[in-house]
Amino acid sequence: MVVDFRGAQGWAQDSADQQQLEVGAHLAENTDAVILVGGKGTRLRPLTNSVPKPMMPTAGVPFLQHLLGRIKAAGMTHVVLGTSFKAEVFQEHFGDGSDLGLEIEYVVEEEALGTGGGIRNVLPSLRHDNALVFNGDVLGGTDLRAVLGTHATKDADVTMHLVRVPDPRAFGCVPTNEDGRVTAFLEKTMDPPTDQINAGCYVFKREIIGRIPENRVVSVEREVFPKLLDDGLRVYGHVDQAYWRDMGTPADFVRGSSDLVRGIAYSPTLVGKTGEALVDSSAQIGGGALLLGGTYVGRGCEVGGGSRLDTTVLFDGVEVEAGATLERCIVAAGARIGARAVLRDAVIGEGAVIGARCELIDGVRVWPGVNIPDSGIRFSTDV
């Protein structure tokens, strides 16, 4: 027998939550999804020298595909990608979106317009009265129907997804009142008044997007949102503790990929595929190799016997020779890691060669095509 101790208040909350999801699901059918993917991903170089950050392989598919799967699961079908850097890469891969059950349009910024300018730039492509806007470099797990439900039930002009974090000092904070209405946008401080931070996901009424200045650089965080508060518009927060990670640094990218592989971060794309490692069917894994910590091994990779890959991402065509150890690393396509090499917290560019018995640790980045000879870099004295 199962006993529920929540009482009437708990049941009432469950009923309210379910009703909000239903309201959000209905609104999703008439909401545009807008994804801002125009950034250059400079913090992830050299990996982003040739590939936009949202297109980097992440647990078997381009990172952006996980978000597109969540959008489709929530009930939205029309997606507008606001692109700039290497815009053609997105269209070449996703086309019109029909393979994903979506309809994707592309709006290209000839010059970078910032987060607010990027939102304003897609206005002519919107079809509905509301748009759910995403920063394209965030890995999130919130139920998008719930965010839309908050927007509808509060009759908000803008609804922000706010996530609670254990240490908000590294972020700008967004306090709300008892009704959930946003009261301020605060810069980073050592003594934040709230643990709620901007999660990079917003619902805008279409007419509010029309208020953003066009054809110039605009920050949605520093210019648009404060102006909306000054003008007395209804800006609300949808607050939860859902999974959230900014994938802008190598450490965060590795952790995010690992969390997807292990099922800690949910993706409709990976249902039934999660575990300690995800290995493409075309990869070859030698005897005694150990893959753990949410490691991903891409197409055509070869991992030698006795190797140990922990919380590591191998793009397509990587060769890891026997006895090598890789921890918290990202290795780009076509690179080769020599026998008994030790790599920790390293980023290896496309086509690079790391010689046998090399030691690369503590955030080292090797640029594409670089060839490091056997024992060429060591941190210990033995060879």
Helix/strand class? alpha/beta
Helix content: 10-25%
For the sheet with most strands, the description reads: 7 strands, mixed
| Mean pLDDT metric | 89
Characterise this structure.
- By secondary structure, the chain is α/β, with parallel strands linked by helices.
- Helix content is about 25%, strand content about 25%.
- The strands form 6 sheets. Strands 5-4-1-6-9-8-10 form a 7-stranded mixed sheet. A 6-stranded parallel sheet has the order 12-15-18-21-24-27, covered by helices on one side. A 6-stranded parallel sheet has the order 13-16-19-22-25-28, with no helix packed on it.
- The protein starts with 6 loop residues before the first helix and ends in an 11-residue tail after the last strand.
Structure characteristics:
disordered N terminus; alpha/beta; single chain; 6-stranded parallel beta sheet; 23% helix; 7-stranded mixed beta sheet; 28 strands; 8 helices; 25% strand; 383 residues
Topology of helices and strands:
Elements: H1 7-28, E1 31-36, E2 57-58, E3 61-62, H2 63-74, E4 78-83, H3 87-94, E5 103-108, H4 114-121, E6 130-135, E7 138-140, H5 144-153, E8 158-164, E9 196-205, H6 206-209, H7 220-230, E10 235-240, E11 244-246, H8 250-262, E12 277-279, E13 284-285, E14 290-292, E15 295-297, E16 302-303, E17 308-310, E18 313-314, E19 319-320, E20 325-327, E21 330-331, E22 336-337, E23 342-344, E24 347-348, E25 353-354, E26 359-360, E27 365-366, E28 371-372
Helix pairs in contact: 1-5, 4-7
